[in-house]
């Protein structure tokens, strides 16, 4: 299952084979430090006195690990930072080697040894991440970045398929989906409540916002899942839920999405995938209004069963 950090980097752990392949390209010192948990001699690393603006990436896999804005002069002889670029990018492990108990820090994506973290750093964290220069590659602000050091280029899609609880639940499980959020769309009232949408004909449809990484999952795959999760031939209802807010809809965010959605509906119609006419609306996305907190992750939180079936099982 792909994993993404809050700052939107792909942090899915790399396989041992992939790490071995990347490690082959390292020079001797970087190999010793990152793969054998080595330590470089103090005051020798090339990044100790680097004061340029930018970030420090893992020398093995390229994941950004530390930022120049958190670097400080510790006087220890090793590059020091008081916090990580993103806490999810740096893993911690108890290290009892050399007769000491220390906390080792590693790259969360490839497992490269980076150094140790100590609790004698400056405010606001009080931490000192003590790094080996040989484990890092510095990218100055504005420098061109290789793909492995860039955040995922995310896309957003919107689907209305009846009650959003189940649709959100299963979109969230899509491999390459970063986030699925329940909300209301395509209506006339700003910031509507669930009650308004249900009883006041605001014109909104219960909609799930899907943020995804097109490198991992395509819009087409999301469309396929969407049509497995609901019945697109029911007008303004899904099963027991009746009303305009339960209508079937695809709210596109780009001309490409519009084209793909229409083509897929034409394809389903052509091969008579459903017994009736597909009434799914395809419209440009208007403002998405997130639903109240208690609607988010409803199935996961309540353990309720749901009429929507899992679209990801083959
Ligand atoms: Zn790494």
Primary descriptors:
single chain; 314 residues; alpha+beta; Metal Binding Protein, Guanine Nucleotide Exchange Factor, Chain A; Peptide Methionine Sulfoxide Reductase, Chain A; 2 domains; six-stranded antiparallel β-sheet; six-stranded mixed β-sheet; 25% strand; elongated; binds zinc ion
Summarize this entry quickly.
The protein has two domains: 134 residues, Metal Binding Protein, Guanine Nucleotide Exchange Factor, Chain A (Beta Complex), CATH 2.170.150; 148 residues, 2-Layer Sandwich (Peptide Methionine Sulfoxide Reductase, Chain A), CATH 3.30.1060.10.
Q: Give the bound compounds.
A: zinc ion
- What share of the residues lie within helices? 10-25%
Q: What order do the helices and strands follow?
A: HHEEEEEEEEEEHEHEHEEEHEEH
How would a crystallographer describe the biggest sheet?
6 strands, antiparallel
What does this protein structure show overall?
Helix 5 crosses helix 6. The model has no long low-confidence stretch (mean pLDDT 94). It is elongated and about 70 Å long. The strands form 4 sheets. The chain has a 6-stranded antiparallel beta sheet. The protein has a 6-stranded mixed beta sheet with strand order 16-15-10-12-11-17, with helices on one face. The longest helix is centred in the C-terminal third of the chain and has 16 residues. The protein has 2 domains: 134 residues, Metal Binding Protein, Guanine Nucleotide Exchange Factor, Chain A, CATH 2.170.150.20; 148 residues, Peptide methionine sulphoxide reductase MsrA (Peptide Methionine Sulfoxide Reductase, Chain A, 2-Layer Sandwich). Strand 1 and strand 2 form a beta hairpin. It has 314 residues and is of the alpha+beta class. The structure holds zinc ion. The site of zinc ion has 8 residues, from loops.
